[in-house]
């Protein structure tokens, strides 16, 4: 049996609820079909946006939603997506499948969708192919409450009052699809573009710079050195590829124990990655004023057979649930620096929480984990220490248990536990310092098979169930975790 010490008597930094953010790009069937079906669709909708999706996302309490990309953002001109829909420009989505983008979902629709699901917008501006003026006019259009050509245009388009916009990204992946830039060049461009991202009235913009790809520590160094004082946040992107090879990432549903293990091991790398980036940031920003924003994370597999390779449509199994649980535990641990994260992507793309097919919708195992974990949003992170049993496979070893804990405003302790082992259960004795466990409830997500997933034919093949394999003795909590499971306990 392993012992987990939980220092409930010394709660630390707040787990920013924005760590539970999402990402919606004009890519494949994320926006069109996933969110937008149009007002005349037989699929029940509110102002063109599907009701089933709105309801499911409201339940998830999504704090922030990033849009319109991704790579799409650095090819996007916001002016193509406003005004009467029948007059909007049609264009080719050069990054994703070469399909026609009719611009029916633009700024007004996105910001309305955010209102409908109760989330804050996070907009990515175009540095790769857009001008400083375009970016500055977009901010004016959305947030200025006075008289200006842009604010007047917004009013003509049916929105009198400005929107509240807090989060704005100055470019996306400018080291790659967003312009193939060197960090020195982008750092200067960032300073220039960001200078024109203005605060109008009491709308205060939180400016997010394009940060490194994965472990490009030099990019982080240069950006923090040259542009640190001009930013509020800096992004980092890290995807879990089971093989680590882009040309053969593997199937989302067909994999063996070794690939299961490799996937989870690759996910655990997020911890080292964040620690190293934080270390560099701390050299320039010891107060931790600048947030590290993991605005793209999740699994990336080969697309489902027979689907458009440019649409990045993949299924989502119990393995993805573990990936989500592990990443969230890591974000909690780094919550003094990581203050936003956005899983890629919300619907029908990569590690989606929702899949749709015509009028049907299924919730994925990843959805259920985010729903179980939402109790950590804005709670205070609690230090823990665990001597985890080891999970060995093919000559490599990782810790078998990933976990994190927090205390909410009502003094309730929440403990998230992921048992990574594909076959072995795990017993844990919890020594909770500063608190005597009296009432404990739990929820678990697990299955007999690693590959279990929800389909349109069997939408409830895997879902959360009540968990009761624990006992309390003299204030100490003993838990038996099933193999390959995610468990969240509420302790009072
Ligand atoms: O999420 C899919 C793509 O991955 C995004 O468009 C891009 O930013 C990243 O490379």
UniProtKB/TrEMBL annotation:
User: Which ranges carry the Alpha-L-arabinofuranosidase C-terminal domain?
Assistant: 295-485
Instruction: Look up the record and name the pathway of this protein.
Output: Glycan metabolism
- Cross-referenced Pfam families: Alpha-L-AF_C, ASD1_dom
**What is the E.C. number?**
3.2.1.55
Q: Where is the signal peptide?
A: none
Q: Which keywords does UniProt give here? A: Carbohydrate metabolism, Glycosidase, Hydrolase
Q: Which reaction does it catalyse?
A: Hydrolysis of terminal non-reducing alpha-L-arabinofuranoside residues in alpha-L-arabinosides
Q: Does the record's keyword annotation contain Cell cycle?
A: no
How this chain assembles, per its entry, is:
Homohexamer; trimer of dimers.
UniProt record similarity statement: Belongs to the glycosyl hydrolase 51 family.
Name of the featured protein = non-reducing end alpha-L-arabinofuranosidase
Native species of this protein?
A: Cohnella suwonensis
